[in-house]
Design a protein that fits this description.
By secondary structure, the protein is α+β, with helices and mostly antiparallel strands. The protein is 46% helix and 17% strand. The structure holds 2-oxoadipic acid (OOG) and nickel (II) ion.
């Protein structure tokens, strides 16, 4: 591909590829995961034909990844937001993993991703981004917080050149080919595993509190934690990975395998592998050791649920994500989901004025699954003093920390539905003001 000018979506697509190449060099098991994912997807497309592409074209699904990164402070999060802003990725959603997890995961999160339909179709790359909460006394004493804050304020994760290019891309709506190449090189390098020796005593002190805290605040740089391909049959993927001798975590997180429509997100991962890391001991010696921090994850995406559908999902998960619970909770057809207003669909007008209902794919994450993924990859439980009051954090606080509008995922899906109804009404020559009608009618229409 030769391009003189890189628009945000081209930067996003190129960055996702560049990160994937880098991560494949750093974590060879990721390359195995990609191979198996490709095999699974090819088999599903062969077996199911067009139906396999109902929740995204095979081109989109093949290129599709989500990344996970972790930062320490609002200042770092704001810099991350500038880098992703250059690629047309905006903060969406608020996730609080401190309570969602029984082990010590002292972070809150958001996801950077494209927000409109055309941009998602071009490349849906998203990055789950977590930030430490050092002021939360359940995890950190006042003394440890003070030292953590000092350490985090002194380090610099992203250089001025990278940030300047990011700002220019965002302001101008892209970069020249030469600037784009430099931006991509610097942005990829910013997420490589650090080679600088890690202060061993500091790292171990934080690790005793939380392995996640140590991974974030115990090292002078940041890194991509994992990069997750999308598969069309995650149960098959799970079995094939185990058959290759790669031990997966115990379960697939999220909804169970059942005969009805896939909703939201199903995820699984393999345990973090030991990676060599250099440490500086308290007496100044530099030694080789290893850390198990980065893991491999894979996911299958389903239909986005409305607030009502989501409430049902949350209740069902508490009951236990079994096929029986699902049968009691959700209708087993897309038409049923639409009729009951549980999931989002767009309405497309074909030749001859026929209206078809198309599912909207879920583009976000699930706090319980995220906690399950974090947790299953921790070797140490860490420590958490539940008698202390937690620090209040919510979406508004997160918006302030990131310094940008934080989008609500439900609003984004609803806007896609509304836009499709306007388009459909326009094509059919119907008054679009009737579109506000209840989802009961949406179902009947298609
Ligand atoms: C993020 C864990 C959550 C997901 O896909 O829900 C996650 C992390 O380990 O930093 O990756
Ligand atoms: Ni993930």
């Amino acid at each position: 591909m030769t391009t003189d000018y890189f628009e945000p979506w081209q930067l996003r697509a190129a960055f996702a590829r560049s990160l994937s190449d880098m991560y494949g060099r750093e974590v060879p098991a990721y390359t195995t995961l990609l191979e198996v994912s490709h095999d699974v997807n090819a088999d599903v497309v062969r077996a199911r034909g067009a139906d396999a592409e109902r929740l995204g074209s095979i081109d989109r699904v093949t290129a599709e990844r989500h990344g996970a990164i972790r930062v320490g402070t609002p200042a770092e999060l704001q810099q991350v937001a500038r880098i992703f802003g250059a690629m047309g990725m905006h903060p969406v959603g608020f996730y609080d993993l401190r309570d969602a997890s029984s082990s010590s995961v002292p972070v809150i999160s958001t996801a950077f991703r494209p927000i409109d339909r055309a941009e998602l179709a071009r490349n849906p790359f998203r990055v789950f981004t977590s930030m430490l909460v050092p002021s939360d006394r359940r995890f950190f004493s006042a003394d440890l917080q003070a030292r953590l804050d000092t350490f985090l304020t002194r380090r610099s994760l992203f250089g001025p050149e990278l940030l300047a290019l990011a700002d220019r891309a965002e302001a101008d709506g892209g970069l020249s080919a030469a600037d784009a190449a430099e931006f991509l090189r610097l942005a990829t390098a910013a997420f490589e595993l650090g080679r600088e020796p890690v202060d061993q005593a500091w790292y171990r002190e934080l690790e005793a509190v939380s392995a996640v805290a140590a991974d974030i605040g115990g090292v002078p740089s940041t890194h991509i934690n994992h990069l997750t391909p999308r598969v069309l049959d995650i149960d098959d993927l799970y079995a094939r990975m185990e058959a290759r001798g790669i031990t997966m975590i115990d379960a697939i997180q999220g909804p169970p395998l059942w005969e009805g429509p896939d909703v939201l997100l199903r995820q699984t991962s393999f345990r973090a592998l030991a990676e060599p890391r250099t440490f500086r001991t308290p007496d100044g010696e530099v030694v080789q050791d290893s850390l198990r921090v980065r893991f491999g994850e894979v996911e299958a995406r389903g239909i986005a649920l409305t607030r009502e559908g989501r409430a049902r999902y949350d209740a069902a998960v508490v009951e236990g994500a079994t096929p029986d619970v699902w049968r009691r909770t959700f209708p087993d057809t897309e038409a049923g989901l639409a009729r009951q207003g549980l999931a989002y669909f767009t309405y497309e007008v074909g030749d001859g004025g026929t209206v078809t209902r198309e599912p909207i794919v879920y583009e976000d994450f699930l706090p319980r699954s995220a906690a399950g993924i974090f947790q299953s990859n921790l070797t140490e439980e860490g420590s958490k003093d539940a008698s202390q009051a937690g620090e209040e954090r919510d979406a508004d606080w997160m918006a302030g920390a990131v310094g940008r509008e934080l989008f609500d995922p439900f609003d984004l899906y609803a806007a896609q539905v509304a836009a499709s109804r306007d388009r459909a009404a326009h094509r059919l020559g119907v008054d679009p003001t009737h579109r506000e009608n209840s989802s009961t009618q949406q179902g009947a229409q298609a």
